[in-house]
Amino acid sequence: MATDSDHPMKGIMTSPLLSRRNVLLGGLGLASTATLAACTSSSSGTGVMPSRTFGPPTPVSPSPGQKVLEKTLTARPVSLDLGGRTVATWAYDGALPGPLVRATAGDFLRLTLDNQLPADTTIHWHGIRLPNAADGVPGLTQDPVKTGGKFVYEFTAPDPGTYFFHPHVGVQLDRGLYAPMIIDDPTDPGRYDAEWVVVLDDWIDGTGTTPDEVFKKLIADGGPANGGGMGGMGGMDHGSMSRMSMGTGPWGDAGDVTYPLFLINGKPPTDPDVLAAKPGQKVRLRVINAASDTIFTVALGGHRLTITHSDGHAVEPTEVGAFYIGMGERYDAIVTLADGAFPLVARPFGKTSGGQAMAVVRTGAGAAPPVAADPSELAGQVLIGSQLRPTEAAKLPGKEPDATVDLALQGSMKPYQWGMNGAKYGENEPLTVRAGRRLRINATNMTMMTHPLHLHGHTFALPSGLRKDTVLMAPMQSFAIDLDADNAGDWMIHCHNIYHAEAGMMIALEYR
Ligand code: C2O
Ligand code: CU
């Protein structure tokens, strides 16, 4: 993602008229961006932000008696076998997904990133309410970690839940650099017999291109000219293609990149991960969408799933046949297993090529499901996660907001420009809040595409009270999201489509 050195200018956009105009237009447009940039130089105040440097992190010590988990994660090039196809990529400890990091809420984590990549990197601990200095955003919370360099992340993981981690540099997330992170609840009896971590991904790296090349092409082509499921439909606008081929669905135009493969736990359907248990056993699924550009619909053939958590927070248990999961979202579900072999399918929403992601759940005899398994659950009603209800205990305590800010998600595919509040990251004005406030963010998606909106360092509450850190916003959808400003620092808010984020669909939330 963009760093300050990429964007030395930090624009000011104080005119409500200007910001209103951009909100109404939705798009950014080079002209308005240029206008904003021109404004900057003549504006007073905080205008130009110098490139920030941080130096090594200040060591943090665990409190007396606190349990400490230490681990080193080595980011390095590796060649992986994906169902008989060899791909050169980057991964943590050479594994896909990377190694699980697991601790108990309240534990002290000391996680060392060893950068053996031929590029700068960092690690962001997605969804964890940690101290700002450990958040992993280059230019905002730390210096980028150079090739051969190390960085020690130290923090206490306060909240139980299902999380993951990934770099916060460029489009590195779309390589193999991601891994699950589980924070256990010391008070949770765990009323299930087994637990499966299910990590979803869309895969292109090493298949004749790299995510960096994909990004360059998106910019150069002004959108997914031959991509995004356009196959053979050259000349037709990407949006209409998606609507035509996908029929109805809540997410409109859902992705920009054409992926040849979709993976569950690092494996394609031709060589699926096999999750084994006994018939009648109760299993907790921890589903993580680590994809960069793909919303999935998830179902386990022949089963109903009871959703229990969203982004780590407890929800009223809700039985579903299938559910959507956006990039960066996590859902936990309990399922009681039948006897046989069943497809656990994650079907890319709005994409017509590359097939689907699939793992096999096996509790008994029976033929393995085919690569193109089509569980009937996918044709039924599909849960939209933001409609889940929180448990009483998981609600943000009721309180009127004492500060309100607007957040417009803007942009277009042609030209490929994405931003927030009138400009791309580095040129848009940070949102600000004072510590102790209940902040309301009136977020509006002004585009014809769905975006997973993600906030660092906090969780927010939807109007229902549902706590999340990543929420899918459908085209033209608005949400008033509330948060307690109880974690001082400079934080990112961004679209978790990593190509949108890299194009500038990010904004900072700064404590003043
Ligand atoms: Cu998972 Cu700022 O990201
Ligand atoms: Cu987006």
What brief labels describe this structure?
Immunoglobulin-like, six-stranded mixed β-sheet, 512 residues, mainly beta
Describe it.
- It is a single chain.
- The protein has 512 residues and is mainly beta.
- The chain folds into 3 domains: 68-184, Cupredoxins -  blue copper proteins (Immunoglobulin-like); 189-389, Cupredoxins -  blue copper proteins (Immunoglobulin-like, Sandwich), CATH 2.60.40; 395-511, Cupredoxins -  blue copper proteins (Immunoglobulin-like).
- Helix content is 10%, strand content 36%.
- The protein is globular.
- The two termini are 24 Å apart.
- Mean pLDDT is 87; it is low at 1-25, 30-50 and 225-247.
- Residues 451, 495, 497, 500, 505 line the site of copper (II) ion.
- Keywords: Copper, Metal-binding, Oxidoreductase, Signal.
Quick take:
It is built from five helices and 31 strands.
User: What is the averaged pLDDT score?
Assistant: 87
Question: What's the CATH topology label of the largest domain?
Answer: Immunoglobulin-like
Structural class: mainly beta
General shape = globular
CATH architecture verdict of the largest domain? Sandwich
Helical fraction: under 10%
Oligomer: single chain
Strand order of the largest sheet: 10-9-12-17-14-15
**Residue runs with pLDDT of under 50 for 5 or more positions:** 1-25, 30-50, 225-247
**Biggest β-sheet description:** 6 strands, mixed
Number of helices: 5
The CATH homologous superfamily name of the largest domain equals: Cupredoxins -  blue copper proteins
**CATH class assignment of the largest domain:** Mainly Beta
> Into which percentage range does the β-strand content fall?
35-45%
The total tally of domains equals 3
Taking the alpha carbons of the first and last residues, their distance comes to 24 Å
Bound molecules: CU-O-CU linkage, copper (II) ion
Q: Give the strand tally.
A: 31
